[in-house]
Structures
1.
Amino acid sequence: MPTKYTRLLSLIFTLFVLPVATHAGEITNGETPDYTRHWAAILCVIVFVIAYILVILEDQIHMRKSKPVILAAGIIWAIVASLFVQSGDLHTAEAAVRHNLLEYTELFLFLLAAMTYINTMDERGVFDALRVWLMSNQFSLKTIFWLTGLLAFFISPIADNLTTALLMSTVAMAVGGSNHRFVTLACINIVVAANAGGAFSPFGDITTLMVWQKGVIPFQDFLVLFIPSLVNWLIPATLMAFALGKGVPDEVTGEAVVKDGAWIVVGLFIVTIIMAVSAHSLLHLPPVIGMMTGLGLLKIFGYFLKIRGRFKAFWVSGDMLRPAPDEFNGSNKASKREEYNIFQSLARAEWDTLMFFYGIILCVGGLSVLGYLTLISQAMYIDLGPTWANILVGILSAIIDNIPVMFAVLTMYPDMSEGQWLLVTLTAGVGGSLLSIGSAAGVAVMGQARGIYTFFAHLRWTWAIALGYIASIWVHFQINAELFS
C-alpha cells in the first residue's frame, strides 16, 4: 500500500512525463530530434531566462549569481533527460551531460590553480607593494590615470582582468580621495584597459581561456590581438584624459610588508604558465595538467615556507635544537596566526564564480542538445555572416555577459577562419566594456567604488568606448587580413 507521499510523487511524474512522451519525436537513423518547438523545451528556455534575470539583479536582490543557475541547470537537464528517455534514447542525454561536465572540470581546475596563485601573491604582499609604490611617488592625477590604465592593460593578461581591475581601482580611490570626477574616469579607464589587456592572452579572461582550451586558437596566435586590444583602450583613454584637468593628489604615505617567498611565488606562477602552455602545445595534453602541476609546486613551496616559519621559533644550542620558551607558552600567538597555509589561499578562491560557471555551462549545454543553438547558429553565422555575427557577440557581451555568449559560440562551433575566431575572441573580451555591467571587472569595480563609479557614470562615456570597439575591429581586419582567408 503506497503512502500518500508515494502517490503524490507518482501523480507529479505522470503529469510531467506523459505529455513529454506524447510529443517527443522519434529518433531515426541515430539523429537527435529537434525539440525546439516542444512545450517542455520552451519551458527550459523560460527557466534559463528567469535564472539569468536573477543573475543580472544580483546586486539588487543580494542573491549570489551561482544559486539560480545551478538550480536551473538541474531542472533543464531533468527535462532534457525525460524527453530523450521517453523517445527511447537512453544514452544521448547522459553522454551530453558528461561532455559538459568534462569541459567544466577542466575550466574549474585551471581557474582554481590560477586563483590560488593570485591569492597567495596577495597574501605575501606583492600587490600591496605595487599599490604603495604608486601612491607614495606623488605622481600627478593625469600620470596616475595613465599609469593605472597601463598597468591594468599589462597585468590583466597574467593575473586576469577582475583581479587587476580591483587592484588598480583601489589605487585610484586612494589617490583621488574626494575628487570623484577623477575616481570615476580612472575607474572607467581601468575597466576598459583590464578587459582590453585580457583579450590578447588565454590567461586574461574566461572567454579567451575557453577558446584556447577548446584548441581553436594556438597560444601564440592570441598575440596578434595585441595591437587591436591596445587601440581599444587607447582611444577612450585619450578622450577621457582631456576631461581630467590638472592637479596633484594629497600626499599618501604607507608601507607595504612583502613576506618571505613573495617573489619566488611570482616566479613559480610564471613557470606554471609556461608548463600549461607547454602541456598544450608540445605534449598535446589539456592545459589544466600544467596548471595543476604548478599548483603542486606551490603546495610544496608552501610546505617549506611553513617549516621555515617554524624554524624561526627555534634557537640553536650546541648540536641541539631547542624551542624558544616564548613559542610554546602561547605568548607568540601573532606569529602562529601568520604561519603560511596554502589551503587558506584555496579557500579564498571565487567559489561563487566557479559555481556560476558550472550552472552556465550545463544550462547552455542543455539548450544546445534541444537544438536551440543550431537555430541561433543558422540565424547568426549563415544568415548574417560571421563578421556581423561576431561583432554582435561583442555587443551582446555588454548586455548579457561574455561567458555564456562565448560558450554558446564554442558549442555551436561555426565553420570560420582563424581571423574570424580571433575576431569573436576580441569582441567578446572588449565588448563587455561598453557597459559597466558587461564584464566581471566592471561589476567588481562598481562594488569597490560604490556610489562614485556607477552604471550611468560609465554610460556617459560609452560613446568613447564604442569608438575604441569599432577601431579595434577595423585594426584587426587591417593587420591580420591574411588570417581571414
Note: Confidence is low (pLDDT under 50) at residues 1-30, 315-337.
2.
Amino acid sequence: MPTAIVINRAQMGAGDEDLGRKILGSCLRKLSSFEDELEAIVLYNEGAKLATRGSCVAVELGHLHERGVDVLVCGTCVDHYNLGDRLLFAPASNMDDILATLRKADKVITL
C-alpha cells in the first residue's frame, strides 16, 4: 500500500519547538521500518526548510532517500525561503508532481 507522508512545518506538532524537532527526528528514524510501504515524503511551507544541509532531520531524510523514498520539496517554498543553495534533494519539485504523488498514494499521513 503506497503511503505518502506530508510535513508542512519545521517540527512535529504544536508547542515547544525543540521538542517538536526531537520527536520529528525520532519519527523519521522509525519510518525506515516502513520503507516497503513508504513511497514519498512531501515537504512544503516551513517543512521545506527540513530538506536543507544542516537541518535537524537532514540525516534522517537522507537515509530515507537512499533507501528509495522520494523526497519532494515544494519549489515555490524553496524560492520563498531562499533555500536553493542549501537544498539536499535537487531539483525542487512542483505542485503537479506533488499532487500526482498524493493522488496515487493509498494513504496520506500529515505530521
Note: Strands lie at 3-7, 38-43, 70-73, 107-110.
3.
Amino acid sequence: MPAYLFQIELPAMTQEMANLIPEHRDLIDKLFIEARMLSYSVSSTRDQIWCVVDADDEKEAMEIVSGFPLRKFFVDVSCHQLLLHNNNPSPLPEISLN
C-alpha cells in the first residue's frame, strides 16, 4: 500500500480542542494497532501535526484523516504520496533461555 504524508495546521489551542485530545489520541493509537498510522508527530508549539498514513489510495488516506476528532479545527491540510517511508525498526526483546 502507498503511504501518504499529511501536514496539518492547527489554530491556537482552545479548551474545546483540549477536551478532544483524549479521544483523538485513542483513535491514533487504534490506527497504529491496525498499521494504518505509520508515524505521528506534533510540533512543540502545538500548531502542526505531521503523520504518515498507509492507505490504498489518496481518497482512503483523506478519509482516515477526516475521521480525526480534531478535524473541525484543521486550518490547512496538505497530503503528499510518498515513494518511500523508512522507520527505525523497534528492537526485539531479548530472548531468555530460562
Note: The mean pLDDT is 92.
